[in-house]
Amino acid sequence: MALAWAASPRLLMRYTLLGMFNAIMPPVSVYLGAVLVNKIAEARLHPLQFRIFFTSLLVCGSLLLFNGLLVLIWAMEEIFMFVA
Which of 28, 35, 69, 71 is the most exposed, fewest CB within 10 Å of its CB? Predict the structure, then answer.
């Protein structure tokens, strides 16, 4: 860690935060997916408002898209770092 910090503190913090965010995403996605499935299952017993369903679906999709974009940016930086 000391060597990485000495080389570039900014990049070390950047990759550490990005790695922590990527590590958090799978459990969050599973939880939000479970909430969405529970809302769909609950709709069999009680009417489900479209607004509630759409909000849950939008949050799940937005997090998935945001995580994918971060991973893509990270990969592109790695590729261009080796090319340059």
Answer: 69
Domain range summary for the chain, segments of one domain joined by +? 24-83
Q: Does the structure show a pLDDT above 60 at 84?
A: no
Q: Would you call 48 helix, strand, or coil by DSSP?
A: coil
In this structure, are residues 60 and 39 in contact, taking their beta carbons and an 8 Å threshold? no
Q: Which residue has the higher pLDDT, 48 or 79?
A: 48
Rg of the chain over Cα atoms, rounded to whole angstroms, equals 19
Is 37 a residue whose pLDDT tops 70? yes
Question: For residue 65, what are the CA distances in angstroms to 11, 16, 52, 74?
Answer: 23, 20, 20, 14
What's the pTM? 0.66
